[in-house]
Design brief:
The protein has two helices and no strands. By secondary structure, it is mainly alpha-helical. It has one domain. It is elongated, with a radius of gyration of 14 Å. Keywords: Membrane, Transmembrane, Transmembrane helix.
């Protein structure tokens, strides 16, 4: 499931990049924040299971 989300984000990212190279810098920022958000969610789910 997570892999699917990453694939969609990557495709959208490359399409945006192709249309507007200036978005590259914003995109790089998103690429760094997204994994942190996903990790935070995974940690929360693990905490609930205990």
């Amino acid at each position: 499931m997570a892999i699917l989300i990453v694939l969609v984000v990557a495709i959208v990212f490359f399409v945006m990049l192709f249309k507007n190279p200036k978005l590259l810098f914003k995109g790089i920022g998103l690429l760094f924040t997204l994994p942190k958000l996903i990790l935070a969610e995974m940690v929360k789910q693990q905490e609930r299971k205990k």
